[in-house]
Amino acid sequence: MAEKLRNCQNCGKLFMSQHGEKVCQACQDAMENMEQVVVDYVRDNPKCKIHEIMEATGAPEKLIRRLIDEGRFVQVGVQMSYPCKKCGKEIFAGQYCEDCLKEMQANLQAAHGAMAAAAEANKVHGMYSKELQRKL
Ligand SMILES: [Zn+2]
Ligand SMILES: [Zn+2]
C-alpha cells in the first residue's frame, strides 16, 4: 500500500500512513500499552468483570471486548465471561450465547428459504408467461 497522509482517528493529528493504519504511531503505542495493562490486570484478577477492568485500567469497553474476541485473555489462562449481546447471558466466546446463535441461524435459514421459494415462483411464473406469449 502506498504511503498516505491522513488524520489519526484517535487524536486527529496528521501522520504518514504506510500500511493503511488508521491511527498515528503515538496512539498506536498508547493503545498497545493500554492492551498490555488490561491483559496484565486480567491475569492478576482472573475473576474480574468488564466494568471492573474499565474502572481499574481506564480502558474503553470496546478495547476490552476486542481483546476478548482476539482471545488475548485465554492466552494468559483466563476464561473471561461477559454478557451475550442479545440476551445478556454470561458467555465466554464470540458475541452471542449458543441459544441466540441457534435462534439467529434458524431465522436466517427461514429467510433464505422464503427467498428461494420466491425466486422459484418467479422463475416458474416467467416460464409460463413466455410460453403464453409464444402461443399468442
Ligand atoms: Zn493519534
Ligand atoms: Zn443470548
Task: Characterise the protein shown here.
It is flat, with a radius of gyration of 25 Å. The protein has helices at residues 25-44, 50-57, 61-69, 72-75, 98-135; strands at residues 4-7, 14-17, 82-83, 90-91. It folds into two domains: 1-80, no CATH class; 94-136. Helix content is 58%, strand content 9%. The chain has a two-stranded antiparallel ribbon with strand order 1-2. The longest helix is centred in the last third of the chain and has 38 residues, at 98-135. The model has no long low-confidence stretch (mean pLDDT 88). Bound molecules: zinc ion (2 copies). One zinc ion binds at residues 84, 86-87, 89, 96-97, 99-100.
- Strands ordered across the widest β-sheet: 1-2
Structural domains: how many: 2
Uncertain ranges: none
Secondary-structure element sequence? EEHHHHEEH
What would you call the shape? flat
Enumerate how many helices there are, as a single number: 5
* Cα-to-Cα separation, first versus last residue: 60 Å
Please give the share of residues in helix.
55-70%
Work out the number of β strands. Answer: 4
Measured on Cα atoms, how large is the radius of gyration?
25 Å
Mean pLDDT: 88
